[in-house]
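From the shared-data thread, chain only:
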Amino acid sequence: MPKTIVIKQPEGDRAPFLRGILTQSLVRKGLSFEDAYALAQEVRDQLRDSKEISSKLLRVRVAEALEKRFGMQLRQAYEAKPQKSEEIIVNTSTRSAPFSVGILTHCLESCAIAPEMALEGARHVHDALNATGHKEIGHRALRHIIYQCLKLHVSEKKANMYLSWRQFQNSGKPLILLVGGVSGAGKSTVTAEVAYRMDIVRTQSTDIMREIVRCYLAPHVVPTLGYSSFEAWRGMPAIKRKGRREVDNPVISGFVTQFGKVKVALEATINRALDEGQPLIVDGVLVLPWELELEELQKRAIVVPVMLAVMRKKLLAKQLKHRGREQNARKASRYLKHLDDIWELQSYLLSQADQAGIPIIPNWSMESTVREVLELISKKIMSHYPPDPHALV
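Structure, as tokens:
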């Protein structure tokens, strides 16, 4: 779906409409994350056929949606001009900046703390800072206040998560998240949400890697790369000649051959992130963690592999139809025609993941899946960096 352009008034600046930005804006106005996300999605759906919209008209649309869902009081809170308050300056060794509840909320979300809890914690930190009467605070002192507020007003578990994440961030090691799953499993959607909440700017898809490799090599060298994962067998001469019925598991054979051609690009992408010490998320059907040297990677980074799954065939068909409406280039009819092959490929991937001890997350809903992925990351970090209040720097 093409992005709707928002024309800011009166400046005339142009920027794409971003569901995540609107969600955070609504959270700061008092909505829960789930309600804010649902309303932002509703507004996004309304703008589906709009190429442009003024910022003034967009605010009216949001206000009307708020009133319809939650009543006039929340609409008035959204439309009210923010009251000016005394700024508290946070000083670090390199710069100074005003304390922001919104920024701290997002920072706590990047520690895998749920949005509503992150907002609650950030508000308590703001209240605690105001209670001191100080106009400036150092970042070390602020971190201790954040920890105490989370422990007192949210939970000790969330406070400990914050401690472990601070220790991890100070370690200099990057986070590498590997998200696998078949077509329609929701990899791209989940990846985008996790990347936004964790402030990870580097994401890569094995679909892109496959296209790049295909463009640089002659078709007869990598014949399977001209096909989707579930029909890569068509690019294998022996299978094409004999026909599917005479070959055992042609879908799996073609897929495994296709992975072999992309594996070098996948490993190179991960190694580049390791060399630069930058966090990275890789998603795609060709993400096969059991085929990578995870033990070696773990020495240089926190590596979290996960396999997404759709546990009902009818639900997979429904998600493929939905994706076809969202992305015109991915026509649903073609994927639905090969639904049995996609289902067979998923069975293979889940079996391999289970044998290798790779976590499998059934993707029943985007929000619950994102939370499970974040929880998985948090557990991995806490196991490597047990919470230590004395390590706050």
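The radius of gyration is 24 Å.
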